[in-house]
Amino acid sequence: IIPSLLLLLLLIFLHLHSFSADVYYRYRMSRCIYSSSNISDMVYFDNYYFNKYLFIQFDSTLGRFVGFNEYGMKLAEFWNNDIAIFVGTFCPHNIGYDVALLDSVKPKVKLSSVSQAGGRHPAVLMCSAYEFYPPHIKVSWLRDGKLMTSEVTSTMEKADGDWYYQIHSELEYSPKSGEKISCMVEHASFSKPMIYDWDPSLPESERNKIAIGAFGLVLGIIISAAGLIYYKKKSTGRILVPQ
What we know:
Oligomer: single chain
Signal peptide: 1-21
CATH architecture of the domain at 108-197: Sandwich
CATH topology of the domain at 108-197: Immunoglobulin-like
GO biological process, one term: antigen processing and presentation
Subcellular location: Membrane
Shape: elongated
CATH superfamily of the domain at 108-197: Immunoglobulins
Number of helices: 5
Keywords: Disulfide bond, Glycoprotein, Membrane, Signal, Transmembrane, Transmembrane helix
Domain Ig-like: 107-195
Number of strands: 13
Strand content: 25-35%
Structural class: alpha+beta
Radius of gyration: 35 Å
Order of helices and strands: HEEEEHHHEEEEEEEEEH
Largest sheet: 5 strands, antiparallel
């Protein structure tokens, strides 16, 4: 049994070895190279390889195929007779999303008060920027218009997984009466640094409750007024019959 098994393994090895020696590898690689948002400087290369050897290439700067061996030159001559089917279709069809990302997207900025665990200062503010592109951004803190450099902790830009980014910066400080704390955000989508002032009058949750309550009050007044107007119009249309 053992000699038969060894013979079988030997035959399998020889078969695989002979098969791998006869394998041919051919592949194609297309590239669209550009740097402007309107792709006016786009260059298109369409390369065909056989066993790692480039045998034919389309170069958009030449506007035709070029062969690098006998087979490639014959193929290039044939393909160049109908070059229109190769030009102007691949890149515009495939780079639309990339070009869209060349446009900057303004960040959504939120200022909030957060709790801390055993910090040296009684107050901690967080300035968060969401859904912006490109990723490079600068978040700074201002106290009465002056840049604050100490007690500031910032995260790196984090990818959201949908081509957009977010960043968070925390400031530990001791509040003083009458001061103004601001978060300054600098990004390519802004023509100038944007400054967001912190309103310490009420916690965010309380401000939300007040806003909801005010909205409910206004809505109630509107409904009451509409009901009163309807009642008066209906009353004036009645005819009183004497008894």
